[in-house]
Amino acid sequence: MANIDLRPWREERRKARQRQFLTVLACVAVAAAAIGWNWNQRVHGQMNYQNTRNAYLEGRIKELDSKIQEIQSLRQQREQLIERMNVIQSLQGDRPIIVHIFDELVNATPEGVFFLDLTSTGSTITIAAQADKTVSISDFLRNLDASLWFDTAFMMGMESIKEGQEVVGHKFNIRVNRVNPLAVEEGQP
């Protein structure tokens, strides 16, 4: 048999396979880099899209917040206007009541009683008066209780006025609540 050297052929085949392996490896690396770059671009695109949507929603939320604040301020103004209207209506409705109150005070005051001070706070009237007899004070309290315009007459205090040893009169304080019988008849509180 003849001696044939097969080494160069094997070596060329190994080099060819190595080049083929390196070529496939380079193609795989290029493909992986392209896929990675494409994936990175898609993720960044989705992030940018989501950031754009978030910015839009935040802008809309700020607009709605400002509208909510405007609505709340309008509600407060509305409540203030309603309160003012109610005060004006109550003042307009209570205007003739004071005439009735003074008329009832005149009718309820017996002879010998005169007022020193008259104070009204809300629906409470405080009367500081002087009387020559205690019977006049009792009559005054009874007359106030009997009136439709007054309720719960209460004597807060009484003091005798003396000249020497003789009692010449009495100072007293009465608290009474005023009511409106016309409002009760109409069904208003």
Q: How would you describe this protein?
A:
The protein is rod-shaped, with a radius of gyration of 51 Å. With 189 residues, the chain is of the alpha+beta class. α1 crosses α2. The protein folds into 2 domains: 17-99; 109-186, Gyrase A, domain 2 (2-Layer Sandwich), CATH 3.30.1360. The chain has helices at residues 7-108, 134-146, 181-186, and strands at residues 113-121, 124-131, 150-163, 166-178. The protein has a 4-stranded antiparallel sheet, covered by helices on one side. The protein is built from 3 helices and 4 strands, in the order αββαββα. Helix content is 64%, strand content 23%.
Our measurement of the CA-to-CA distance between the termini, rounded to an integer number of angstroms, reads 135 Å
Tally the structural domains. 2
Mean pLDDT figure: 88
Number of strands: 4
Total count of helical runs of at least 4 residues: 3
Helix content: 55-70%
Q: Major beta sheet, specifics?
A: 4 strands, antiparallel
Q: What does the radius of gyration come to?
A: 51 Å
H/E series, N to C? HEEHEEH
Q: Describe the oligomeric state of these chains in a short phrase.
A: single chain
> Globular, elongated, flat, extended or rod-shaped: what is the shape?
rod-shaped
Spans of at least 5 consecutive residues with low confidence: none
Strand content: 15-25%
Going by helix content, strand content and strand pairing, the class is alpha+beta
Strands side by side in the biggest sheet: 1-2-4-3
Question: Could you outline the blueprint of secondary structure elements for this entry?
Answer:
Blueprint: H1 7-108, E1 113-121, E2 124-131, H2 134-146, E3 150-163, E4 166-178, H3 181-186
